[in-house]
Design the sequence.
């Protein structure tokens, strides 16, 4: 199992919309809005790094209101 923390930047005013969308995903274990350089921090668990990569590219970065992501993979 691979655990990652993804820091997400959204379009202004779309934080809650994006948060609600990503919380519906089984891969997202926790997520919350935050203040600072990022708008949302999400804890994600996937079976492999490849599946993690696929989820981030297709499901997170694919959301219309997501501007950027920064991923930290746990050891």
Sequence:
């Amino acid at each position: 199992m691979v655990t990652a923390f993804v820091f997400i930047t959204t379009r202004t005013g779309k934080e809650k919309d994006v948060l609600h969308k990503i919380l519906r995903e089984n891969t997202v274990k926790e997520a919350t809005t935050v203040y600072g350089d990022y708008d949302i921090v999400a804890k994600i668990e996937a079976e492999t790094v490849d599946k993690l990569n696929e989820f981030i590219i297709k499901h997170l970065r694919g959301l219309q209101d997501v501007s950027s992501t920064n991923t930290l993979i746990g050891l």
User: Anything to note?
Assistant: The chain has one domain: 2-73. DSSP finds two helices and four strands in the chain. Strands lie at 2-10, 28-33, 40-46, 66-73. The radius of gyration is 11 Å.
